[in-house]
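Q: I have two molecules that I believe assemble together. Could you output structure tokens for the complex as a whole instead of separate predictions?
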Amino acid sequence: MARFTGKKAKETPGLNMGSMSDIIFMLLFFFMTITTMRESSLYVSIKVPKATETIKLQKKSLVSYINVGTPMVGEMQKKYGTESRIQLNDQISEVSDIPLFVESEISARVEADRPFVTFSIKADKDTKMGLISDIKQELRNSGAFKIFYNAAKGERK
Amino acid sequence: MGRKTPGLNTSSMSDISFLLLAFFLLVSNINTDQGIARRLPPPLPPNQEKPPDIKERNIFVVKINSKDRLLFNGEVGDIHDLKDRAKEFLGNPNNDPNLPEKLQMEIPMLGMIDVSKGVISLQNDRGTSYDMYIAVQNELTAAIDEMRNELSQAKFGRKYADLTEPQAEAIDQAIPIAISEAEPTKIGEKK
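A: Yes, here they are, computed for all two components at once.
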């Protein structure tokens, strides 16, 4: 027996993993602070156009999104076709649904913030302007005047 | 001597925090929302007479057709010229009688200053692509931004982006975003 023979089995000492979790937690908090929650999953595919004079969208809590694009390949296309559609919140909608959407988005904010609610039109670059114009007209009629065209920063061609 | 308390085994702690990290990476996205901000005009009251006509020299018509081609005041134009044309139109540096009139206005922090009466009228077709529309809006924004930067350099010696809020407001008044959008034409619409 080792105890009596005086021989000791040599083992490589294990790495101390105690601080590993601290490091990972730090990473976790870092990502939690710089990112925002994805509000809803997209059912339409959107590739925003490029523009050079873009500004950052301020006050994310006062922004509501109107997504416009062709339905995603697969199930969505089978259901809704390949024409450009509007997605409000979590569902594919019609232009005529916009006033109700505006109403609910505005009333969801506290009174003081209501005049500053911005509607961000996030549209695919191949969308036809007819649809965008209809959306703008509906927004205008329902009293949402602050709009924002989402675009990616970058040189064109 | 008391017995040593055995240490907690924390090796799986890092696995748990890794899981959390991966979860947050999946459900969140890094904020990269950029774009062009605009203000829509309030809707017209239904029984209003026609708004007063704008003089021809005060208006610069930009049309985009369903094939994404451009027309500036009735002539075929190129997107690369749009910024300079818009700047020339809104600035009217040589007081050309064919370019817009100016209105002397008293603006706080700037004093008496010429404000252009020019309006850029933008009309697109229902078949115009959104990409082209944003390109045009981008050029017009670039023109206005450059003019604002020039004015703020001249008056305050700083870039427009570095101004204080009242200064920026004064500049906004001197050079407003004078873009008016007309009802789109319906030539390129698919039936």
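A: One point stands out. Chain A touches chain B through 56 residues (CB under 8 Å).
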